[in-house]
Structure formats: structure tokens, C-alpha cells
């Protein structure tokens, strides 16, 4: 199955745990609720005359509420998650060992794996949970040394077993949830027959790439291609052969693309290739080689060889178009001009009708007329 699918594009550098937007909602909720709670305690400290602590808690409350506001817009949530979890976990351990600590303060430690797995995913959740859980147990034993004798051993055993089971359950749950989410994402973003990106994920990536190009001043190339006389392939060799031809084309194209390029099936026998950080002059030799390869590599179907060819329309952003819609239209018009000119060719320029009469110049279009 082709490698340059949307899978690669979508999973690069992803954090585990909930989806980005779900994590954002949850983190904002956590920041707001913690900020309000600490704010409430700040008021209580003020009323009780403990001014330094009131100021400290008031500042923490304002920081958290400000953070909740910022969280609505930040692109990378991971630092914000660690910024919350690490001090919070340290505080949970502190309430076990602080001078007037209650024996039951230990129960808050059970929140550690729940929050870590939910917000960071299986691997990072495990890595963060284990050291804090170990330190919490050691802190508890130092604070309550009697727990290692008599009935205390049973209490300690219960607490430990409960903690271990919670961690095991969230670990299994998060593994299953992450796998199901990954499968759903792949089903939603890839074409079932060929395994390459589908139209909607391609559209998204094209929009994102143009937005990125605007910021970084980098050009990109969109190539649309359509198999020639594909109906005849289906009619003559059957639908299964047609399906294999579509997979064969994807494999040919995918083998030549870079990791940053993307291939998508837009529907039927129409595909799109997105070449980022590339201009038309750089893209043309690659696409021309692809056209030739498709035209000279028939599909081996059982004992038979099925000849295939495709017509390509190429457009460069921002030279040929200012936005994704215009770019698509431009590439599409060139593709269909290629069809009218006899198929199996690459059109990369808008030309006057008179120019079309001299395709042999190789300047405005390239084609292989031997197959026509
Ligand atoms: N096997 C197979 N065929 C498909 C699939 N999707 C669309 N097709 C067929 O693709 C063919 C497209 O035919 P047309 O739109 O007439 O295009 P064409 O025959 O390639 O002709 P030109 O594009 O003008 O060169 C139709 O016969 C569709 O049934 C698919 O998933 N599998």
C-alpha cells in the first residue's frame, strides 16, 4: 500500500491522549476550576489575616485564569499540560507530608494516572505517573512509619493494590481508545481502495500548505491527473482489473514522491499530487517522468498486460493562482485541455490556441503521441 498517505501527514509529532480540541476543552476547564478554587482559598486566607499566603494564592489564581484564556488559541498544548501537571502532582505529594497532613490525603495520588493518561496518552502518561507514584509512596511511608506494622500493613496493601489496579485499567483503556481513534482517523482520511489520502483530507492539507506558504514565502505545485479511457479498462478486463489499475498507479506515483509530498484520490480515476516547497520548473521533470513511467509500465493482470496512461494538469501557487480554489481550477482546466489534446500528456501552462498546434516544441506541454 502506498506510503505517502495522509496517515503519515496526520500523525507526525502528535501527542497521545485525547484529540487536540478535546484536550483543549478539558485543559481550559481544569485551569479555570483550579484557578477559581485557589482564588476562593486566597479570599479565605485574606479573611483569616494570612496576607502573604493570600497574595501568593491570589497570584496563582490569576495566572491560572489567564492561562485558561491563552489556552483557547495556543497551537501546541503539550507545554501547557506539563505546566499544570508537574506542579499539581508535586503539590499532591506535598499535602501528604505537610505538618498537619491527614492520613487520607494519599487518595489524591489516584488522580495522577487518570489525568496523565487522559492528557498525555499511554506512553508519556506512564512515564510521568510512575516516578510521582513511587515518590508519593515513599513520602507516605516516611510521614506514617507505623503503616509498616500490624493492621497498617493491610491498609497500606489495600491502598497500593487499588492504585495498581487504577493504573492497569487506565493503561488498558487508553491503549484501546487510542487504537480505535487511530483506526477511525484512518478510515475518515484515507481512500479505502488505494490507501492514499481522500478528497477531504487533501483539501485540508492543500489549505494548510497554502497558509504555511503565505507565512514562509514558499511556493507549491498542485498536479491533477486522470487516467485515460479508464472506462475501457473496466469494460474490457472487468472492475477488479480496474481496481488493481488504480492501486498500481498509486504505487507508481508514491514510489517517486518525497515524504513532504502528498498523493490523494479525489474520486473515480482522478488523483491529486501536492508538491510542497517546489516550483513548476522543479516539478515538471518529476511529473513528466511519472507520465512516462505510467505509459510504459502496463499493469500485469494474471497473464495479461493492461496498458495505462494518464493526463496531467499542473499549476503553481502563487504564480498561477492566489488561493486553493483558483489553484485547483487552474490545474483542472489544464488537465482537461490535455484530454482534448489527445491525452497522455502534461499541461503546465495556459497557451493560446495557435501554440497548441506546436506541442513538439516541448515548451508549453509535453506528451507521448506514440500511444495515441
Ligand atoms: N474499477 C473501478 N472503476 C472505477 C472506480 N471509480 C470510477 N470508476 C470508473 O472509471 C470510469 C471513468 O470513466 P469516464 O469518466 O468516462 O472517463 P474515462 O473512460 O477514463 O475517459 P477519459 O477520462 O476521458 O480519458 C467509469 O467507468 C467508472 O465506472 C473504481 O473505484 N474502480
UniProtKB/TrEMBL annotation:
Residue ranges of every copy of the GGDEF domain listed in the record: 218-351
Pfam families hit by this protein: GGDEF, MASE6
Presence of keyword Membrane: yes
Superkingdom, taxonomy of origin: Bacteria
Localisation per UniProt entry: Cell inner membrane
EC id: 2.7.7.65
UniProt keyword annotation of Metal-binding present: no
A cellular component term, taken from the record's GO annotations: plasma membrane
CDD domains with a match to the protein in the record: GGDEF
MF-aspect GO terms: diguanylate cyclase activity
Entries under PROSITE patterns matching the protein: GGDEF (PS50887)
TM region positions: 25-44, 125-142, 148-173
Cofactor: Mg(2+)
Swiss-Prot/TrEMBL keywords: Membrane, Transmembrane, Transmembrane helix
Catalytic activity: 2 GTP = 3',3'-c-di-GMP + 2 diphosphate
Uppermost EC category: transferase
PANTHER family registered for this protein in UniProt: DIGUANYLATE CYCLASE DGCM-RELATED, REGULATORY COMPONENTS OF SENSORY TRANSDUCTION SYSTEM
UniProt cross-references to NCBIfam families, sorted A to Z: GGDEF
Protein name (record): diguanylate cyclase
Originating species: Halopseudomonas litoralis
Amino acid at each position: 500500500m502506498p506510503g505517502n498517505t495522509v496517515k503519515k501527514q496526520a500523525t507526525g509529532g502528535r501527542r497521545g491522549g485525547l484529540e487536540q480540541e478535546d484536550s483543549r476543552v478539558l485543559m481550559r476547564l481544569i485551569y479555570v476550576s483550579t484557578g477559581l478554587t485557589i482564588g476562593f482559598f486566597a479570599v479565605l486566607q485574606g479573611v483569616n489575616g494570612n496576607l502573604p499566603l493570600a497574595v501568593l494564592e491570589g497570584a496563582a489564581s490569576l495566572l491560572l485564569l489567564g492561562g485558561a484564556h491563552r489556552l483557547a488559541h495556543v497551537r501546541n498544548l503539550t507545554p501547557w499540560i506539563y505546566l499544570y501537571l508537574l506542579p499539581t502532582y508535586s503539590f499532591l505529594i506535598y499535602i501528604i507530608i505537610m505538618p498537619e497532613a491527614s492520613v487520607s490525603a494519599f487518595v489524591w495520588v489516584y488522580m495522577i494516572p487518570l489525568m496523565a493518561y487522559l492528557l498525555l496518552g499511554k506512553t508519556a502518561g506512564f512515564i510521568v505517573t510512575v516516578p510521582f507514584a513511587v515518590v508519593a509512596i515513599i513520602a507516605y511511608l516516611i510521614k506514617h512509619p507505623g503503616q509498616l506494622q500490624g493492621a497498617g500493613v493491610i491498609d497500606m496493601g489495600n491502598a497500593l493494590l487499588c492504585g495498581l489496579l487504577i493504573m492497569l485499567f487506565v493503561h488498558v483503556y487508553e491503549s484501546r481508545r487510542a487504537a480505535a481513534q487511530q483506526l477511525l482517523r484512518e478510515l475518515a482520511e484515507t481512500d479505502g481502495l488505494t490507501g492514499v489520502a481522500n478528497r477531504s483530507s487533501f483539501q485540508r492539507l492543500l489549505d494548510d500548505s497554502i497558509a504555511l506558504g503565505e507565512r514562509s514565502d514558499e511556493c507549491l505545485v498542485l498536479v491533477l491527473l486522470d487516467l485515460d479511457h479508464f472506462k475501457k479498462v473496466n469494460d474490457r478486463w472487468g472492475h477488479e482489473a480496474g481496481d488493481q489499475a488504480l492501486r498500481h498507479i498509486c504505487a507508481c506515483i508514491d514510489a517517486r514522491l518525497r515524504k513532504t509530498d502528498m498523493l490523494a484520490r479525489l474520486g473515480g480515476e482522478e488523483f491529486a499530487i501536492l508538491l510542497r516547497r517546489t516550483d513548476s520548473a522543479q516539478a515538471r521533470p518529476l511529473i513528466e517522468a511519472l507520465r512516462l513511467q505510467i505509459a510504459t509500465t502496463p499493469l500485469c493482470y494474471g497473464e495479461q498486460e493492461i496498458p495505462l496512461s494518464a493526463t496531467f494538469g499542473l499549476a503553481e501557487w502563487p504564480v498561477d493562482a492566489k488561493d486553493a480554489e483558483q489553484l485547483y481550477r487552474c490545474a483542472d482546466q489544464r488537465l482537461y485541455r490535455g484530454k482534448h489534446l489527445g491525452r497522455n500528456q502534461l499541461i503546465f501552462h495556459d497557451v493560446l490556441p495557435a501554440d497548441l498546434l506546436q506541442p513538439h516544441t516541448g515548451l508549453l506541454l509535453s506528451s507521448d503521441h506514440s500511444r495515441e
